[in-house]
Amino acid sequence: MITATELRALDVFPERPDTQTPYISAASGLVCVGSHIYVVADDELHLGVFSAGDNEPGRLIRLFAGDLPIVKADRKRQKPDLEAIVFIPAFKGFSYGALLALGSASRPNRGRGILLGLDPQGGISGSPEQVDMAPMLGPLHRAFADLNIEGAVVVGDELLLFQRGNKKYIENAIIRYPLLPALNALRGLDADAFAPSAITPVNLGMIEGVPLCFTDAAALPNGDVVFCAVAEDTGDAYLDGHCVGAAIGIADKHGRLLSSHQLEQPYKVEGISAQMKNDTLNLLLVTDADDPAIPAKLLSGLISLEAEASRY
After folding, report:
1. Among 30, 162, 304, 308, which is 20 to 30 Å from 45 by CA?
2. What is the greatest pairwise CA distance in the chain?
3. pTM, two decimal places
4. Half-sphere exposure of 225 (CA within 13 A, CB side)
């Protein structure tokens, strides 16, 4: 079992205090770059930016134009559903790397994403560039009955996407693409349909008869990935359900499950970042309570890798 410690609520300075809550509620993805903690939320048009060095409220960076409805059901229909965020190492036009945020693609209006350049300290530099997942989606919709992208990781020269299953369609999978061609496809530099180089199903097991399904992932130095997964009692990529448990696991990029550890409390963890220190994996996690009245939380935890030290 992993014990998760609550570090803080994800409170922010709202862009418009009259219509926005002073916190992120539905945190769905997490990446740390330098001293910056970046959080996407599946029902926001903004990126949350927090400092790793203090508990001051975060700031919001607008990613998409417009406003979302306040009423939960209406907001759910219209939201871009950003579910994954990943650091992309330096490439042409982005000398210090970039952040790539992607929608779940679970509905036609959820196939957008954003590319954000970074400065030498890992801070945001320049304006958001909108990207379109359309070239990737045809092959993925043919592969999955209920497509739902929840995580993204860069391992070497590959981009890995994580398909989240559900109770009806237990279709957890790691989807692999060559990184630079994938970026070209997303940016509209190559409009042809872009199929993955590999799709590997992954069985994560169950908690109380409910399948564990991917919610995010992060790369480890040796090319393995650490992931978070929840057992959410729903048979649909659109509808929420009761979270009966959660787990943190490690897999290789080919989908071979190496370890899995249940969380002591059934937090609905939807974002993960990890840092190796000696034989310990230090984790940061963010939660989604599926209730707009409850702020998302930043959690910490750790996994001892002493038994697998030779692998890392």
Report:
1. 162
2. 54
3. 0.95
4. 32
